[in-house]
Amino acid sequence: MRKTIAIVMIALMTLASVFANGSSESAAGGTITVGILQDTTGATATLGKSVQKGVEDAIADINAKGGINGKTVKYIEYDTAANVDTAISAYIRAVTVDQVDFLFGPPIANIVSGLKATTASYGVPMITFAVDPLCYMDNEGKIYEYLFCAQPSTVVQGQIMAEFAMQNGFKNFGVFYTQDNSYSLSLLDPFVSTVKANGGTIEDKNVIGYNASETDIKTLIQPIIKAGVDAIYCPNYTAPLVLIKKACDELGFKGAIITGLDGAPAFNSQVGADCSNVYFINNIDIYEEETAKAIAERCSDVGAPNKYFLGYDSMQMAAAVMAEVGTDGKAVAKALETAEYTGLTGTIKMDPASHMPVLGTTMFRYKYDGTTPVMLQKYPVEK
Predict the structure, then answer these.
(1) CATH topology of domain 6-152+286-352
(2) What backbone torsions phi and psi does residue 103 show, to the nearest 5 degrees?
């Protein structure tokens, strides 16, 4: 029987005054090396930097408490630069030259999808934050042994967003997605199928896919707006979402914009205007006391606080697993399959069949009032 590792974190630990970056070792001797592979330059650098800081702060807190079984945790950073080839090179360097014990991969589906086959050859566990289920399986549907995700899948998120939109009275939808981006594409069908199953309308003519290289958003999205839909579903990253929101405003669209995690702050500050028609989901309750305190104390320079907390909680979960089974890659991967951790992102409970958290995972539904996010509902994801 697999052993479930469960750790409940009541509140964030006090931030250590010195980050552990390999400069010292604990009294017990020895180190555990963590590789942080993130897009810290390029179009998705805001996400990558936020995850990276969360992992770093968790390592600082872990070392302040004595490390993992007396071993100091050090980290090595690698910029994957939003590029698959760069990510593969960085990964290989991390596991062969630097001989890391554990890895945190990028939150970008295209990058993880391009990297996944490489992970099978080296036996080093890696948690990423890309939510497309296809990122974690081969062409025959077999799950990669050493690859895990710390967020609910796009299937779950698409369903949540569709139910959320319809609960708010929207029935006739347009869909505007990036057809050459696996993240955007993977969020499409779950939303459409859930809307239709619940009596909503999405006409084929109002489903428009475009390529990431296309920049004339106003012209591309105008047919959907002219069709008079109640809301437009826009599964995308923050930067293109900002362009979509601005294009909709310029075209006089009065309906709602439905999006996911990428509509969370700092989307509102990047738009710099009224966002009251934007509905989104998040993996943190920004008004919960401990979360709000942590945001104020730790996230003043973080562009995506939700990704910060995912990085933090995931490192804490990985540390708990390694404290239990050691650093052997196969043993760690086996334990991660049934790991459970509760932190400020809610409960991360791994599903061994998908290597993604599904059971017991919590999400939060929001809309903006002007530029202020308002939490409307806590959503228990039970599958």
Answers:
(1) Rossmann fold (3.40.50)
(2) -135, 150
